[in-house]
Each structure stands twice: as C-alpha cells, then as structure tokens.
Amino acid sequence: MTQFNVGILGATGAVGQKFIRLLQNHPWFTIKALGASDRSAGKAYQEAANWIESTPMPDNVKDRVVRNCMSAQFEDVDFVFSGLDSSVATEIEGDFAKAGIPVISNAKNYRTDPTVPLLVPEVNPDHIELIKTQTFTTDGSGWIVTNPNCVAIPLTMSLKPLNDHFGIESVVVTSLQAISGAGYPGVPSLDILGNVIPFIGGEESKIREEPLKLLGKLKDGKIEHASFPVQATATRVPVINGHLLTVNVKFKKSPADFKEVVQAMKSWRSPIADLGLPFAPKFPLEIFEDERYPQPRLHADSENGMQTAIGRVRSGDVMDVSYIAMAHNTIRGAAGGAILNAELLVSKGFIS
Amino acid sequence: MTQFNVGILGATGAVGQKFIRLLQNHPWFTIKALGASDRSAGKAYQEAANWIESTPMPDNVKDRVVRNCMSAQFEDVDFVFSGLDSSVATEIEGDFAKAGIPVISNAKNYRTDPTVPLLVPEVNPDHIELIKTQTFTTDGSGWIVTNPNCVAIPLTMSLKPLNDHFGIESVVVTSLQAISGAGYPGVPSLDILGNVIPFIGGEESKIREEPLKLLGKLKDGKIEHASFPVQATATRVPVINGHLLTVNVKFKKSPADFKEVVQAMKSWRSPIADLGLPFAPKFPLEIFEDERYPQPRLHADSENGMQTAIGRVRSGDVMDVSYIAMAHNTIRGAAGGAILNAELLVSKGFIS
Amino acid sequence: MTQFNVGILGATGAVGQKFIRLLQNHPWFTIKALGASDRSAGKAYQEAANWIESTPMPDNVKDRVVRNCMSAQFEDVDFVFSGLDSSVATEIEGDFAKAGIPVISNAKNYRTDPTVPLLVPEVNPDHIELIKTQTFTTDGSGWIVTNPNCVAIPLTMSLKPLNDHFGIESVVVTSLQAISGAGYPGVPSLDILGNVIPFIGGEESKIREEPLKLLGKLKDGKIEHASFPVQATATRVPVINGHLLTVNVKFKKSPADFKEVVQAMKSWRSPIADLGLPFAPKFPLEIFEDERYPQPRLHADSENGMQTAIGRVRSGDVMDVSYIAMAHNTIRGAAGGAILNAELLVSKGFIS
Amino acid sequence: MTQFNVGILGATGAVGQKFIRLLQNHPWFTIKALGASDRSAGKAYQEAANWIESTPMPDNVKDRVVRNCMSAQFEDVDFVFSGLDSSVATEIEGDFAKAGIPVISNAKNYRTDPTVPLLVPEVNPDHIELIKTQTFTTDGSGWIVTNPNCVAIPLTMSLKPLNDHFGIESVVVTSLQAISGAGYPGVPSLDILGNVIPFIGGEESKIREEPLKLLGKLKDGKIEHASFPVQATATRVPVINGHLLTVNVKFKKSPADFKEVVQAMKSWRSPIADLGLPFAPKFPLEIFEDERYPQPRLHADSENGMQTAIGRVRSGDVMDVSYIAMAHNTIRGAAGGAILNAELLVSKGFIS
C-alpha cells in the first residue's frame, strides 16, 4: 500500500493527542506535521502539549516542532486530520481545503454542510461522492469530510440494520456519557464524582439531527435526509471512556418480536468488510446476550475501541423495542472514526 | 399528639438502619422493639448490626436486645415498620397482621395485593380506605400498608399532576440508580467504579406496574388501575444516593407547550399539605430552571431527603414532553416514605 | 451576646461560599457585605457566583450587590472573613488591616508573619496576644489573624496532646486529600476519577512548617516555634470532603505502649471547652476503636465538620506510634476554622 | 523453547482468571487443566466461572471441564499455577508437591516456610536454590515456589538497589491500594465510592515481613533475612488497578543527596535482563521526573503491567529519602509475578 504523510490540526488538544496515539504504527499513515495555536507553534511538541493519554508520548513526535495551523506550513502532507476546536475550525479547515489539502475532520462545523459527507464507513460509504460537489478548489484537490458526534455513532450504527429491515418511525434515547467526551480539563471533578449531570450543552440537537443525515440517501449528488423524529436526553456520568445509550425505537413495519430485531442486527453485513481497512473492526456490531452487558469499562476498548456493543434487546409496550448501545467515544466516536474515514477515502481513490 | 411505640422488622439491614436513623427524635414515634433474623436475635443491637449509616448509631438502640420477628414478641408496640427481605416478608408480615399488629412495609411482597394500599400520601391518600377490605383479622386491628419501589416514587410524583391535567397516554423512562438501592454489601465496587451497569434485576417490571396502581382510582372498595403503558430501562451508576430518571411522556390531551407542563407541576397542591405530618416535605416537588439540575449529589438530601426534584422540562418531537426527575432512593423511596405513610395513617385515625 | 456585622472577602469563590453557608443562622455574626473581584463587583451575588454548595444559596445573599475588595467599601462591618486567593490576599488584607478593619483570614499569605497569629483555638489560643504587636494601625484597631492549612489542622490537633505528654521528636506523614481542597473548577475529573495523584503543589512545605508555629510557645511577645522535623507526602484521592492522614510519630520520651498514647489523646481537654463558642465542637478529638475508622465519607461531617477524627493508634517498629487523623478540609480546615477563630477573638475581647 | 503443559488451581477465582488471561498466547506455557472447588468441578469453565476480566474469556477454556484440585487429576501437566484461597492452599499445594507436581503459587501459605523461595526474579533469583532443600518428594520432583504480596513487590523492587548501595536502616510506608486487590466481589461499592478505608486486614504484617525475606541472603542453603524495621499503614482507595506507595527510607550510609538515590535506581541492572524471559519487563523500574507521576490509572499497565514505577524521589528531614512506588497489583503483584517466576524456573532448569 502506498504510504501517506499526514498532518494533525489541533495536535495538542485531547482529540489531537488521540490521533497521535492511534496513528502510531499505522501501516499507511505517517505523522509528518503537527499544527496548533499560536501559543504552541514553534515549540517542541513535548513542551507544547500536556499529554493526557495513558500510554507514553510516542518518541517520533516529542521533538517535532509544532506549526501554525496555516495551509502554507503543511505543503509536505497528503492530507490532514483535524481535531480543531469548533471556535476556529470553520476558518482553518476552509483554508486548508482551498489550498488543496484534504481535511478529515472531527469538528462539528462542516457536518451540516450539504456538500460535506458526514461519514461512517459502515453506514453510508456512498456519501463520499458528495466530495465531488465541493467547490473549495477548482480541480477538486481540496475537500472536507467529517465524522459524526460521539453519541450519533453508536446510535446510528445500531439503527442502520433496523432502518433497512423495518423502517424507523421514531426514536427515544438517553445517553450516559463519559467524561472524556468533554476534553481536558473538561468536567471538574467536584461536579461529577459520585454524581450525574443531566445536561450536556449542544449535545441533544446533534443526536437528533446527525443520524438523519447519516441514514439519508444520496440522490442526484445530494443527501436526502431520513425523516424520523429523535427525542434525546444527554447526561454525564462518572465513567472515563464509553458512551452508553438506552434506545427505544418504533418501527414503520413492526417485527413479529424482538428476536427478529436481534436477527436483523446479527445478519447485517458491513459494506466495507472486504476492503481490508486497518481500523475497520472485524465485528462492527457485537450483540450481547448477557443482560448485564455491554458496560463501558469492560467493553469500550473492544476491537481497539472501534466496535459498537449492543445488549438487552427486548420488546416494549410503548415503542417496539428497547436496547442498549455503547461505543468508545474518543476512538470510535472521534479520532478512530476519522482515521477509518481516511482509510476508506484512500481505498476509494479520493486520496492518492 | 399521642405517642406511639413502634417496632422495626429487619432492623439490622440497610433499610432497617435507615428506619432507626430517621426515627431518632421523631415527635410521634418511639422505637420500642427491633426484630431481625435468628442469627441476630438475642444479641445487643450494636453486636448484631454492621452499622453503615454515616451518622453514629443512636444510643437508644445500641444495647437493645434484638428480638425474633415473631408477633408474640412485639406485643408492646402499636405497629411495626418492615424493612424485611422479600424472601421472608410474605410470611412474617402476614403473621403480624393476623396478630393485630399493623405493618407499614417497604417490602415488595404485598404491593400487588388488591386489598393492600400501595401508598404515597401526596398521590393517593384515599387508597388507605382499602385497609378496611383486608381480612387478616376479624376486628380490623391488623393490616398491611406498603410504599412503592424507589424509582416508582419520583416517577409517580412527577406524573400525578400531569395525569390530572393532561391524561397520560404513554411513558418512556430510563433510570440512573444509586448504589445504595442495592443494599449492603450490594454492588461490588469492581462492577461499578467508573462504570455503568445497564440492568437491575426485577426493577423494570416494578417501574412499569406500580405507577398504575398508585394513579388508580378507588371505586367500590377496589383500585381501578391507570392503564397507560410504561417502557423502562433501569441502569446502575456510581452514585451513593439519589435515583435520577429521564422521563418522556405522551399525553392524551396535548398541552400547548412545555410551559403548560411546568405550570401544571408548579400549581399542583399536595392533598396532605395541611395535615402537619412531620415527614411531609414543605415542597414535595421542586422544579429547577437551571438546566444542569437536579443532580443526585447536590439535591437528594433536599427537605431531609423527602423532596422530588424536577428539571429540564422541555418539548419533544416523539412524545410531548421530556424531563428529569430525581429523589432520594432510601429516604423518599424507602424508609422515609414508609414513615410518612405511618404519619398519614395516624392522622387519619387508622393507628391510634 | 452582642451582634456583629461581618464582611466576606473573596465571597464568590469556594471558600467564600462556604463562609456564607456556615454563617447562615450564626447566633453572633450577620453577613453585611460581600467582596469579590472587579468582574463580580456591582452585580447581585446570585449573578456573580457559580454556587457550588449542596444546600441552596441563602436568600439573604442572593440579591446583595457584590462590592470591590476595598476597605473604603466595608466601613459598615465590624470585621471581615477573607477567603481571598493568595495572589491578591497580601495587598487587600493589608489594606483592610491598615484601615482598622480586623481580618480573619483563610489565605496563606500572612501565616508566616511573626506578628500574625496562626490560630487554632483548641491548640494555641494564647497566640492571639501576638495581635498586640501588629503595626497595621497605631491604635491597634486593624489586625490580621490566620488559620492553618487544611492538613496542618488535623495533624496539629492530634499532635497537641502528644507533644504535651511525650514531646515530639519527629513526624512522618502521608496525606490523602479530598478534591474540594483544590477549589473550583479545581481538579479535572479525567485526572482523578479512579486514580491517585501523588503530588499537590506547595502543600508539603505547609505541612512541615505550620504545625511548628502552632505548637510554638509565646515568649516575650514572640512565638518560639517547635523544632521537630516533619517529612510529608501529599496525595490527592477521589474523595469529596475530608483529608485523611497516616501519621507516624517518634517521641522524645517514649510511652510504655500505644495505649498510653490513646490515653493522652482521650484525657486531653480543650482550653476553650468552657467558653461557649458556637462553632467549637463538643469533642474536638474523637478516638475510634473500630480499626476501619475514621473514613472521610462517613466522618468528615461529624460535629458539623469541626471534629478531628483519630483511629488505628498502634505501636510501630521505626517510630513510636502510627495512627490515622482526618478532618473536614473546607470546614474545620478552612471556613469553619476561621469562624471559630473569630468567635474566640470575640470571647477574648479583641472584637467588640 | 520446549513447550509446557500447565494447570491452574483456583481457576474460577479472580487470580485464576488473571492467570488464564495472561497465559493466553504465552510462547512456552499452554493451559491444559483447570482446577476449582467441588462446586465447580465437572462443569464447563464458562458455566463455573463468573468472568470478571475486561477482555473476553479465551475460547480455549470456555468448554474445558473444571477438575477437582486433586493431584491425581493433574497428571497431564508439567506444573501448576496456584491462585488458591489461603483457606485451602496449605493442604492442596502440599498434596501437589508431594505428588511430584511443582507448584508456583500466589497464595500466602508457604511464603514464610524457610525452605520455600519467596521469589521476585529481578530481586533474589538465587533463592530458587532453596528448592533443593524441600522434602515434599524424595527425588525432588515436587516443590513449591511463591511470589510475594502485592505491596511487597513494588516496595522491594524499589528497595533492592537502595539496599545494595546504601544499606537500609528503616522504612516507613503508606499504601494506597486498589480495589482489585480484594478479589471479587471484594469491597462493597458503598464502602469505597468517594471514600478511603484506612485499614486492610492482615496486610501490614506482610508488608513488614516479606521484603526482609526477599532481600535476605542465601547462606548454606538457608535465607538469612534482612533485618531493618518497616512501619506500614495500608489503606484502600477507589482505584481499579495499581497499588501506590509513599515510601520513606533511612539508610545506614547516607547518600550525599537524593540524586545519588535516583542514580542508584537508574544504574541498577536486573540480574535476569539477559535471560529472554517473555514476561520480564524491559525496564523493571521506571523513574519519573514529572512530579505528578506515577499514577495508577495512567501507569499500572506499563510493560503489560509488569513494571514498577517510581517518582518524586526527594530528600527528607526525618528519613533520608521519600519517594512514590507503584505497580499493578494483580499482574506484577500476583498472576504476572507468578508467571515470571515460572519462566525463571524453566530458564534455570528446575522445570523441564
């Protein structure tokens, strides 16, 4: 496989650090450039970053000098991963795309742009065709692809086979979200130790909207969004990694019983199963039968944090079915998801 | 007010200890007798009990000799509180009732008995009339009253004004339950530290069923249960005290907007407000406007743990309204609820 | 008892909030003025403060307009409590003292000033005489008194009777400190959830030095510090309130066995026991015999958070004795300690 | 390398499960037999065990039938690992040794037997010669080797180079121990969530005594124990894995300053570095300079949980030096340590 040189924007932040950790030893991608704010630019990475990952900072980034997040300083990379803060991502990512540098972004800014794919390779790989409608450059060399919110991922991963089989009528979901989702320093310990915070700013609208774009259909170069309503409550719980969701779904075409729902999930086949993408989990969905599972602390790291775990699928009296869905919020739901997106884009020839 | 001598069944367990703590300095009730299993009977209470409350064991129980849970040994009390384990409660509570000793029970065993009131004074005080239909004794001197499950309490407290105003069509609820709800030793720390367990055995059926009896109507000496469906997911979170619920409700008669729902809660008046019951919270429902609230660690102890806290009332796209409800699971949801029941029964002349 | 009007400096911070909560319903002191930074000055307190206490903000401060921390704006108070940050305390507290307004401070800035009492009423009440040597004002109307670091308090409370009986030769101590000690937002949850941080900046030098001043002797208007060495390791643990210390002490005059040490602690009498100070704990030292105790979550709130709990007193092979000491860090170790200081100063006629 | 068939005694318990997990894919050892109590014997392992490891139960043990812990049922193994409970280990391990089956045990029962090596390969590999003095069998085919307590391991690992350089005069240590050290169900969550328990039954005597045997000298077929006193306080903290120790050491020959102590640790070379043992950490001691480190959650898993992490080495006023030591309690301090012991025994020809 061809090798690619990559840059990381927002390299000193929590998501940026996760990119660095996950890309260590990646078979296709080599970190060539690290970009951060003016405060960090010019310093060695180990001086600029307050490293919070539990594995040591990789040697190959320690002495690398951090650059400004300006496209002119990233001419030596094939594309960039963006872990930028949303306060600056619109401008910087646009700058890179216009300069002909593809941007694979975890930021929310371009997710709702109708020409930008909101991409989960197992769910809507065909949406990458949207790239061709982007106008950042005249020759198509610069573009942006985004990955969804960390709750939208396990929700959509679980809804995909159900939508295909039964058609989704409506969803009521509660999320129990890990503290790593708030970045660093993030949630003060006095707020969350032995506690639940029943609110996360800006989260519920993403949970309502992003699954609809992800499950939308590509028609005539545009995404026709799915149209079912989602009612969401987002809470924070004292868990390190792994967002757990309690999901209730009503179908357009009711299954005979919940076993049919389990069967739909089990028989679902990932459309990228045969592409040999390094970050693709072998089993994107794991369906637990032990009713105590999944649990964030036990299962968030399954398949290197890229698996979505499902459990307690059962019938309901109000909506057809209830179940639990859980995935690693900063791997599957952020940096790992973006890396898988990049792998798909390489595989499909968008990066070369 | 007349003074009453009370006994406590299951006095060494977690609920029994909570009864002892809460009854300390009670203006009407004096602990006269403590009952526990054969293993404890005959010992001084401080020898028999592994005290887990955070305030010291009251002096007046330390040297009290624990009795067997046999009615013959409780002739010196006016009634008993029961914190018995469900494995023995059917037989023992029945024995006491037949012996003419009223039983105010926290155990689940008689909750579904059509002649036994499942009682929340603010919700269905009229249900105590059911007592007259009980046949434990020929003279009506012995009877049983129960309080509901610790999730059913805040759920029903919040649904009561809504059912009165709008009529409830259906409910979808997720509970985030504190570890104290599992008693002692209860949940192993290895299972719950930094984790969520998405299952609590036997809990969801109580959440579905108990609100229907509580919101039922007394007609011709029987309870006509409410009939809306409840879809529930019960989870355990690393919180000490306070069960938090995310509640979604669909109404028979839709409100204009969520503010009407808030108004219905705020304008609701407790039917026992004027009875002067010592354990009755001044404000049974507190409606928070700060969207970060309620939180278990901050608000479970409000009004001595007897208040139900509500927050984040807002409109939904699938069901009419979503909100958070939270109450102290071992006070409002167990021992404190039973004490308030006893106070109502005194006030209404059932205990004298 | 005469009533006093008090001001609170740093009123919006964590310590300031604790002052407000603890002074609610104080029999002698009424909050008259709240001071904070320029950012807060001019706003109603409820607008300026992010209230983090678990009991609601008292009604009598909600609408009170926050003032600048300038002495000219505090002429209507008899004295002030200071919960100021150390970055500004030197200047502001000095300004108040010079203006003739006594300052009872929790800040560290003046603790080492040889003319400023570092005061724990049960340990060194005679040190208040130092006030007379202060030169902030010519008429003695303005002065500063400080209370010690939150670890120094339980350490010194436990060492006091031992120093009196046996003479202390040396101390080796490890602290397991609660997160509330770091203020708000303080410790990021990602750093401390399920973890220990074996370092707290600036803490160990205070633990080494403050007990020596507290146990010093007043001679000719000066404090002759005690002179034993203290070796300290300060760690942070995921506990809300209550600093727990493992203490090892070598004596000048070895006791026959550890029971003599227990006896020395038990027979110790607080020199302020008969003064009737509202915040004085009835039993300043509680000696547990149950070897599982004391524990922060169970015992930090004992005697309204003003008690120091001792446990596991036993002989050692390297140093004479080992034991556990624990006290509430933000009550006994901060705001509550300062209030008790103020009460002693009133009782002794320094405030009138 | 020759392959060996191994058995695991106590296979369903917490330590037994850790053996199974760690031996998965071991290059030398293949699990052939699982032994447990009568309650489990005869059942498939997946029926008998309540699997608590965070990685899935390996397929090759799921259907393996659990045997009784009797030597006659283990004739097909070359040796056994024992994770037996101390209540039964004396008899069962003795039975296996007498039957000619070597026992590599994590149980405490034989640790103090003068003919049984208490072994840490990096510290006292020569102690394995003790095996030859054992009399379980006449031909020397059956014997027992033990690994030390989970606190004794990091303590002794850190003391070894210091004892070699400076001679240890005395040690004062406090342990902050993880909950996994108590097995399963172990510590009730109500006891430890947001709390510290300042006592662990039976722990402190092991911390005092085991380092003395480990640092003892083999002379004439016997171990001459080291003789310095250790004063220990063991506490439990809400951490999953990783025992952290605050250590204070006085030397016979004082170093010029603490840097000499750091140097002694850094220049120390493991005596087994060149043996190619699969479980031997490349760097048995990691010395952190960042004063916030080591931390259990960040560093317990370093080098597959086999490394001992050191930090905050600094001078003291009472004893020469203070530092932090930390290691994974159930890997380095239990099952992983036993596996490394087995590897050394293979390497030295005791198992063949």
Give an overview in words.
Four copies of one chain form a homotetramer. The first copy, chain A, has 352 residues and is of the alpha/beta class. The first copy, chain A, folds into two domains: 4-148 and 335-347, Rossmann fold; 152-328, Dihydrodipicolinate Reductase, domain 2, CATH 3.30.360. Chain A is 28% helix and 22% strand. Chain A is built from eleven helices and 14 strands. Chain A has a six-stranded parallel sheet with strand order 3-2-1-4-5-6, sandwiched between helices. In chain A, strands 10-7-11-14-13-12 form a six-stranded mixed sheet. Chain A has a two-stranded antiparallel ribbon with strand order 8-9. In chain A, strand 8 and strand 9 form a beta hairpin. The longest helix of chain A has 17 residues, at 331-347. Chain A is globular, with a radius of gyration of 20 Å. The termini of chain A are close together. Chain A binds chain B through residues 170-172, 174, 176, 193-199, 208, 229-231, 233, 235, 237-240, 244, 246, 248, 250, 291-298, 311-312, 316-319, 322, 324, and chain B through 170-172, 174, 176, 193-199, 208, 229-231, 233, 235, 237-240, 244, 246, 248, 250, 291-298, 311-312, 316-319, 322, 324.
